[in-house]
## 1
Amino acid sequence: MFSSRLFWKIYSVTTAITLISAGIVIWILAFRQSEIILNMIDERLQNSATLLTEQMEIAFRQPPTPELQEQLRTLQEETGTRITLIDNSGRVLGDSAEDYQTMDLHNNRQEVREAMHDGTGFAQRYSNTLNRNLRYFSKRVGSEENPLGVVRVSLPVERVDTQVTSYQQVIWLTATICSLLSLIFTYIMVGRLLKPLQEITEAAEAMASGKLRQEVDINSRDELGLLGETFNTMSRTSASRFEELQQKSRELAENSDRLAAVLGSMIEGVIAIDSDHRIIFVNRAAQKLLSLPVSDVTGRIYLELIRIPQVHELVNTVLTGYCQTSLEFKLNPSQATVAAFGTPLPGENAPGVLIVLHDISDLRQLENMRTEFFSNVSHELKTPLAAIQAYSETLLEGALEDPDHNRKFVHNILQHSERLHDLILDMMQISRIESGTDLFEIHEVHLEHAINVCMAALAPQAESKRIELTYECQTDNPLVLADAEGLRTIFENLIDNAIKYTPEGGQVTVRSYLQTSDEIEEVVIEVTDTGLGIPREYQSRVFERFYRVDKARSRELGGTGLGLSIVKHLSQVFGAGLELESELHRGSTFRVTFPLVFTDQKA
């Protein structure tokens, strides 16, 4: 309470008012008491003069005598006042305090003149005879027409001042005691009044610091008690509302985090832009797709970061038309195809636009591949069918009777039909692998045995082209999980392609060895040829169906264009990795990696 500025303000004002009021009261009482005392003295003088006038009338008719003087002194002792007898000429006939014979004429004294004229007279002045201030009262003796003289009584002013001072001291003492009692009472009352306010202030400061649930204990039934109850109600209500807001804030934060996590994990890019063209949200997919900086994106104008005219057009269309729209464009320099969908954010007056970006490069590539696939299938089927039809028509038109050519035509028809048959079988195999209808018996297979079977089957083909076909085995008969027939199909296609595309006198090498990758032991099989090689720009597409680097040479060699595609699909089914390394005019290496089950040690 002593540190309360409000307490000292109220107490200081109250103290000042009390002291000023006490001073005014003291001054009024002192002034009034002085008047009362003077009036009492004047009344006493007047009574004394009235009594003496009746007693001393005879003295004005006789000459002054010593007995008169003695009588005046006796009366002074009885009344306590100085008595002076003055005749109508101003001569002093007697005085109770001094020798009347030595006294001057008093006809010029104010109180004497007034008494002679009006019957009574008052005055206060310094007496040269007594050397002190006196208060005088005079009364005329005799009638107005025939005055005999004046009886004058007086008292020293010091006696009046003494009485006044005595009364003032009592007044000051009483006022001081009352003022002190009033200040003490004021101190107690102000303290009692301010204590609840101080409690409310401390509770309010605690609420301001975050501790909302505060209550004050005010037992009075006045306005302060009502204020305390209102404050407690407000505190409970505020705490309850704040807890509700905190709960809603946590729910909103959790929902926001979930939404950010969902949008962040989407493969589609998401960008939210407000009506001022500022970015308010962007997920990782959009940052990666549009090559935006990882940080310092939110709040910036999107035109500073996204310099794509199609995006600008999309944003302006949605903000001005407040409708959904979409468009498609290519990114530079990646040449990725992106489909953008724009929709207005919920709210009035188009508060913003939400853009969803889809990378449809793979979809467009698949569409192109599908188009090429149907074109290639049509072409691959059409070529042998056209040849069979042409040879058949030639035979029917007479060549059947020509012994020099009929067998050749029939042989060509058989060759093209076999090619057509192989093509259909390969297509059916790829279709079964992709659809999952071709069930494989996955079990442990001896890898070296499968390679040796393929080597033996393709050795005559290599010998016919004078190609050296070798197998460098650096493993101990490893076992892998695969289907035996599917495993042989992989190696037959790889070795067959290597022999086909290696010129005469070349070399085809099959190599197997073990390697450890990420603490997993694997077995690697490489098929290396010394053919023409594959240019780098075509290496990513050689595993596509019907894709040929040199189409004319591929058909001349009798390939269906599906062998490497079958190898890729079978490798995926068996959990094997497939890689290609090739350099133009230096040959190619196809590498297949299987997880190793274990190794059978040879005796």
## 2
Amino acid sequence: MITSYELRKKYLDFFASKGHVVISSALLIPENDPTTLFTGSGMQPMVPYLLGEKHPMGDKITDSQKCFRAVDMDEVGDSRHTTFFEMLGNWSLGSYFKEEQIQWMWTFLTDVVGLDPHRLYITCFRGDEESNVSKDKTSAELWKTLFESKGITADIVDFPERDGMQGGRIFYYDAKKNWWSRAGVPHNMPVGEPGGPDSEMFWDFGEDLKLHEKSVWADQPCHVNCDCGRFIEIGNNVFMAFKKTDHGFEELQQQNVDFGGGLERMAMALQDTPDIFNIDLFSNTCRILERMTGKKYGDVEKETYAFRVILDHIRAATFLIADGAVPLNKDQGYFTRRLIRRAVRYGNDLGIKDLFLSEVAQGYIDTYKDVYSDLVTKHDFILNELKSEETKFRSTLESGIKEFEKLLQGFAMAEEKTGNKIAEISGKQAFKLYDTYGFPYEMTEELAHEQGLTIDKKGFDEAFGKHQELSRAGAEQKFKGGLADTSEMSTKYHTATHLLHAALRKVLGDHVGQKGSNITAERLRFDFSHPDKMTDEQKKQVEDLVNSAIQKDYPVSFSEMSVDEAKESGAIGLFGDRYGEKVKVYSIGNPSQKPLADASSLTFSKEICGGPHVEHTGLLGHFKIQKEEASSAGVRRIKAILE
């Protein structure tokens, strides 16, 4: 059996042999992208290069990217959903296109890792009249030829969702299934977003698999996209050749390939299990949970659900904490906190009464230590954060569940008295659980759902009050600028962030380093390492330095160099294995000089970066700090605007 570790290595080695440069995974917290909280796909860090910007490492790239999708949190518990996953990816940035990509994927899947081609099925794009993009006959015919080279008949079917598989091997679907952009179907894409038709690969677990008989699809024609449980997508070749404009779609200046294949899903095919939690990446930690609980994974359906939630959530929390998303009540930390709390709750259901999360996390650190060395170097930090959060929540969980059970008893007594069944928890009751007992609304909602109850959400929100809006509701504002926001104002704010970073180091000291940023078309937010609240005088000094740099109208330029050259030049950045051999270094002022302590120097800022920038600082306007506050322990936050 090929392990997940071997699969990852074979994939990267294969594409390296085809001239691709292997790069390290980006962080789960995106850099220079204000439009989303997490890196949710392998292509996300690649957007500037798909749009035409030159990648420092060339036009053929491959990696295994860490991803987190909060939207899947409530789906976890079935046999195939996880919030954290690795996406194997390869990109052609104008180098090769459909013929090479399809041939290479066929070779990798059938020859390199040895998947049985008789159990592979393919989907292609049917075309979309509204977006004026035609049917992808080229991909379908390429796949057909490859199947036939193995002696496999490969009929092409037009409408499988309507007529079933009809003995087909290759299937056309519409834009809902076979068009890829981060915003989904073409009409949902914001202006500037790249996308294109895709061709997906599915693995067949066998028509005798009984999962589909229990599903909502049981009485409908089975096909590869029906979600019946028989098939699972293991890879997606996106032929990203289009960009949304104000007038529809236009072709990008280069034809790109963006392949993404879930490491865990490919492992499911290779290890021939329809349950993702049975692959080797979970086996070590699953054994730890079985030992703790005295229960066997897979024996009892309700307990298996709890196992899956814990296995997924603590793996995700371990990686999130390592990448800087410590448990908090807002932004990325909100989701880390929610993952941990749900895991504790389901551990409680399995009878675990003692602290257990750090031991589960240790299982994952051991599993991934040879691939992600930062889990080892941050070992103590990760486990301490988990212990602290679990300790704080355990008393909350116990008291909250007791109060919820009292609520149910009250409902039962009222029903017995009046004969009327109570089907809804009032907003006031839900808020009392939150406000008095510290019980998260989402957990009340989850428990209510299990009891067949609903919650008056509107009443809860009114009771909650405007001053304590849910972090998730606040997070929605991060998407208002659309994806891949490169608007003029966002570009100005991005450049102003460089000036702010340099000014803070000048005023507060070289210990200042960027800990996060969020940029919209209305303002910038910058998190930085500093132990103390800034004085009014310090804030004024920073403002004056930034505005002085703006008035001097410094040129903004970049050059490509090695990481060592970047360090030697005085560039600041989060050095480590996250960068490839070459990086982009943006200079504000004279690029040939190191930044000097004297703010009047011709070099004001020099920083590793890949985001959009203005050509000279005089375009920025007047910089003003609106707020300086604590973000987390040892980290301060500045919110500022350009007037």
## 3
Amino acid sequence: MGIPMAYAGSVGAIWAGRYTGADPNAQHPTQTMKNLSTLCLSLASLTLLTPIGWAQAPASAEPVAPLDMDEVDRYMEHVDFLASPFLGGRLPGTEGMEISKDYVEFYFERAGLAPAVPMEPTGDLDGPGNSWRQPFVLGGKYTVEEATFGIIGQEAFEQGEDFGVPGWGGAGEVSGEAVFVGYGIASGPEDYVGLSKDLDLSGKVAVMLRFEPMGEDGKSLFTKRGWSGKAGLGGKLNAVRKLGASAVLVVNTPGAKDSRIKRLRDKKVFSNTQVDIPVLHVTGDLAQKLLDADGKGLKLEELIERANKGEAVESLDVQLGVDCSMAYKGSTAENVIGVLPGKGELAKEYVMIGAHLDHLGMGDFGSRDRKTAGKVVHPGADDNASGVAALILIAERLKADFDAMPEGAQARSVLFAAFSAEESGLNGAGHYTKNPISPLSDLALMINFDMIGRIENKRLSASALGTGKGLEEFLAGLTDRTDLEVVLEQSTMPASDHWRFVQAEVPVIFGSMENIHDDYHTPRDTSAMIQPEDAVRASMWFHQVLLESSLFEGRFEFQDPQMAGRRTPPSANADSASPGQPKVLFGIQMGESQEGQSGVTISQVTSGGSAARAGIQAGDVLTQWEGKPVQDFPTWYKSLLDAKPGQEVTLTVKRDGKDMELKATLDPR
């Protein structure tokens, strides 16, 4: 497909220059670079280059600078190109996404950024030979090549008989002391405490009971029906991982009223994991062998009884060895990351500003328009070409700020990240938090843009401020530096790339419009609908926030977030909902199905959601819904469109090769 005529003049010269070896710094023929004097800091803002103490709010600024219409034009050029049908909706793995990454890299370089990704994990943000791209595998499968487990110096156990590799964890070779951690549940109803906050499992192998506290009848003490969300493996595994555990043994709990305790889950190939440390599935008999090796006369039944009542952590005088070797193969996606090196000693720390570059392609998944899903380009102008265009403008402005700083100034380095695969599960941001260029302990703040192109009534949302102590007070001192009304919000939504940083305990700011429009995730999200003046005003304000946070000598201590529901388009809240938007939430994330497999593979279950309350687990395959076969995601999605909040549905999942019939009460969206 050729470039549409509307883009031939403004874009063709860029790509002609880029791919024929022309100077990448050559001026874009359709743009006029700002005069250097207009890029330099005003006298008022230069006063901000002195260090700011923790308790000091940013100083009041001169009147807000007028809008630069040349900057508005440049902003729209970026949005127009990225949302062009020529790029096909920027789906990872497509030619359109490859061109989009080249485009962002070109303008990052032109703005004066340096490539930020070390070819080796050196942590050097602007080292020689760095790349603009941070690759990661997307949509792949794990294959278990070998797994061994035993008591060091005593006994080796047999895979398939004593233990299995369930697909809940990653690869690794680990040796360490065994620690019984009960059910691995930190807290529960009626003041139940299972794990103390100061428990240190560093380098140890956690021995965890499956399910949750139960009565003498083997049924849950937390709920009257099935198991509660507390029994979900994702939360339990992550809890002990956070306490430092290097591996986990999940024990089939003797006496539990659940048929799954009769078999081991042992998989050769699987998709997705709950944690990145080795996780083995073991029998109750094997768990008793570990207790016998300890020599204190402990009995598993007694430990289970203790765990049912509360904290039952017991260190065992047993050294275990776990070795799980896996291969992982999948398609490759890339984050595009540039850096503006900091000044002085403060340059060792950094702040980050990011926006996701990808969108839905032809709407094969995630579309809210049932009639066009899979057939028509979903341009994603607001979601999120608008945020990426802002990154480019802010990079230009901040480079001028840093160049104008006096000798001896102190400023953090600033990373600019165009993340990939956000729409399919926050994958690019998740990869960064697990594989940071520089330690996350040096990351003072992460700012995320998602949908700033259609701000209504001049109300700009800056949310998730509760993730950093003092962060809201810090921003309150900056709200007079824009013509927009900045709505400061403590709570956060787990609905964009910033959420992966919250999970990694990094303070964040989420910049977005206050309310989501009805063109969200439809072919109607085009550049013609963008309101560029207010989008540039939002960029100008966040440029100030980024500058201030790079100079700020204090740190915003991370705090557990206050959660907010995901914002929904107007039609999603009305009785006449969009034809592509269900009125219910099931509470799962989908995994990749095996070749030739029908049904919907479930990779993660939301704690407390409809699916969790029904007893669904990660790894289950949904095969029937209200008596009808579920062939794949599209067929199941049609059933969700017809479902109503509060409706009880009967469904069938395949687990460990066996069918299980369950009932779920559907939550409202």
## 4
Amino acid sequence: MIAKAIAMKVAEKSHFSKLVAYMTDAQDTPFRLGQVSVTNCYSDGHNDAVYEVLNTQMQNRRAISDKTYHLIVSFRAGEDVSPETLQAIEAELCTGLGFKEHQRISAVHQDTENLHIHIAINKVHPVKHTIYNPYRDYKILAKLCAKLEQQYGLEVDNHSSQRNHTAGRARDMERHSGVESLISWIQQKALDSIKQASTWAELHAALYENSLSIKPRGNGLALSTLDESIVVKASSVARELSKGKLEQRLGTFQPANEQSLSTLTVKQRYDRAVLTINPVSPEQSKQLEQLKKPLKITSTDLYNLYQSERLDSTVIRVEALQRARTQHQADIQQAKDKAADKRRWLKALIQPGINKKLLLALTGKSLQADIKRINADYRQQRQSLYAQHRRFTWLDWLQQQATQGNLNALKILRQRQSKAEVKGNYLDGIKTPSEHFAPQQSTAKVTKKGTVFYLHNKAVIKDDGNRFHVAADADQAVLTSALIYAKNRHGYQLSIQGNELFQENVVRASVKAGLNISFDQEQLEQRRVQLSAEMLLFGDGAVKNLTAQQSVGRRR
């Protein structure tokens, strides 16, 4: 379990109502939003509670920092946590941070591999109207997560990060965009040669050969590309590159000699290349190519196509915005000309007096209303154009392509999946499929790790390319569909992983559907044979799905 506070330094992003609107938005995905709870508010509904929170925040006019605390609690992939446990974890985290009496709204999201909770907390106390900011909250959250993992039997995560803030943000950027950051590139491609420098001249030369430079900034040093388009703290790359460490080893900082650098050649330079999350060995790569012969397009080919489409989209958007701007100016001028004509006629035809003044005033108000309407239409048109021609990140573009059926994009996304042990309830197979199989069903969503969500009778079957993950409380129709998918992909011998209730219900679903399959676990195969005999004797009623309570009674 990982808990992380999202910094919202911009006042607009700190707006409580906008945060709650994002948290409770289903985003056209019926399974995205889970339980929504409101705490320490008079209203039970989150829409009414937002007004309570905003009213409380208005009582504190002295605070200049953001008044909203955004906390995200994420669980390991495949971890199935009950609603009661989620609510208890949310309460204990907020209490440990010091927000026990503060107003908050939480929402559970289920549209990714990792179940997670968004918690919007009002940092202004509802009675005292003082603002509270937890000190070193990341340490408090680390201790609380470790405690709650033991308390509720959750999978253990590493809560002690060795990276500094800048390096952490670079890692977050890589996860979001799928493009290698400058910090990671220096650490992998240039750090060894940089560390070998014994003088400032050698250091500047080593940096120049890697298309980098180092200069003082503030109280420290900054590394940048030669064109200074990207700048990072030197200490964020490695502690040995901090100003104190370098001056201790090389002496007082000396700037680069441009004349001596001009004789050197740049050997390599940073380019925003596609990040390979889980590189495979050459042998594994050959096996993958043999298994998926139709997928001949490489990530480089797709990335070039992405860059081309992104450039085209930018050009189209600029042209569309220019046309909208020109039309907006023409509409404003037309409204002004129309008002000017009215004023000329009024001055020529109406005698001086109160009526003339009133008519001229009405003309002015009518012009102001027309300009206000034209500006509103223009703002709406601009927003529509930005949404229509928005610039996708690399991973967002791959998601879009995979949703549209591009198997090459889906393959690249699945390379980002973790190689750690998979948890949860899922169907697997003993044999690797001889060819790529995808269920012929409408796709509800594709995640940035290539997990495909198939919507089936308001339930979700998650496909990561090898396994079909299903909820423990899924009905027989959903389990039957998952079994058919697994059979078509892996063959007739399947494996069931998960809790006892899930395994029992999968076996029952296979017997009731009359599927010609077997299970590699001996006890499950014996259970399948036993249930087949019972169904012949007693009918379909003998193989109905079990509930959690029935499962407990059966074990007793």
